[in-house]
Design goal:
single chain, alpha+beta, Lipovitellin-phosvitin complex, beta-sheet shell regions, twelve-stranded antiparallel sheet, two-stranded antiparallel sheet, 4 helices, 15% helix
Length: 301
């Protein structure tokens, strides 16, 4: 997996994760508009399963190289407390991760619950992802979904030496959707812009997300509110460095489904495809990245 894929895809996954795992909805019955707000009762526990498939191809000197990866995260989310101002503290824990990889470096399967001893690239990847299993994160959010603070174990930040703990925390804050503080009508849209620092001083990545309330439908036997998502990314490379990134084409979209009766997210999917031109001195490398992420939620009774 190339450097740019290692940087972008985990952050797109983090965007999907934070945009879906902590998002709950409460709708009050206005005929033509809906009030989108968080509903996080103390003690609520949610089992979350997030599956992501990624297909990455790059053309180097006329030779096409590719890799495929399927990863599944099994997570537990719990509302610990909520204060008088409506600010909730939510903890999260990844309990299990599975990864299937097919790349020029080899083909392997990883399951953090498996006792199997791995070797080579598989062992290195397993060691990296295992650091996240069983570790608890905590964040505070207001009723509009804005993340106000993030607390993570020191060893998680230490495992990523190219990004500081502050940069990782800011990444999570930027990824969470923020709802309007007034009711929204069908077809009404709102924007959210953020900037994330690329590791190693390589520059920054701007994210412009547009959310559109699309009404409600009966899906999976439930009456659900729908929010469509469109995402646009832009790189800003650090001046003076020999390597530069440019997104030459992109198409990223998704949808959030809310269960207003139970007051939690039902399902989220995000489909992202982009072509990136990487320039290193006189050499140009075209890389195509396609990912599909789907997260499902179930309240633990």
């Amino acid at each position: 997996m190339t450097y740019i894929a290692r940087f972008i895809m985990p952050r797109l996954m983090m965007w999907a994760l934070t945009a879906t795992l902590t998002l709950s909805n409460n709708s009050w019955g206005q005929t033509n508009s809906t009030n989108l707000a968080w509903q996080l009762p103390v003690g609520r526990t949610i089992d979350v399963v997030m599956k992501q498939t990624m297909d990455m191809k790059q053309n180097v000197a006329g030779q096409e190289l590719g890799s495929e990866m399927v990863s599944t995260n099994f997570m537990l989310w719990q509302v610990d407390k909520i204060d008088d101002a409506g600010i909730a503290t939510v903890s999260s824990e990844i309990q299990r991760m599975t990864i299937s990889m097919d790349s020029p470096q080899g083909k392997f399967d990883i399951d953090t619950q498996s006792p199997e001893e791995l070797e080579g690239t598989a062992a290195n990847v397993a060691e990296a992802v295992t650091q996240f299993v069983g570790k608890k994160f905590s964040q505070t959010m207001n009723l509009q979904g804005k993340v106000l603070s993030v607390d993570m174990p020191d060893e998680i930040a230490a495992s990523n030496p190219m990004m500081s703990k502050e940069s990782l925390s800011q990444l999570i804050k930027n990824a969470s959707p923020v709802f309007p503080d007034k009711p929204v009508a069908v077809g009404e849209s709102w924007n959210q812009e953020s900037t994330s620092v690329m590791p190693g001083g390589m520059g920054s990545m701007k994210i412009n997300s547009t959310y559109t309330y699309a009404g409600s439908e009966k899906i999976d036997g439930e009456d659900l509110d729908l929010i469509d998502i469109a995402i646009e990314l832009q790189f800003e490379s650090q001046e003076g460095l020999p390597i530069k990134f440019e997104i030459t084409s992109q198409n990223s979209k998704g949808r959030i489904l809310f269960d207003s009766v139970k007051g939690h997210t039902h399902k989220v999917n995000i489909d992202q495809e982009m072509v990136i031109e990487v320039t290193v001195g006189p050499q140009k490398i075209d890389q195509t990245i396609h990912s599909f992420t789907e997260a499902t939620f179930a309240i633990r009774e």
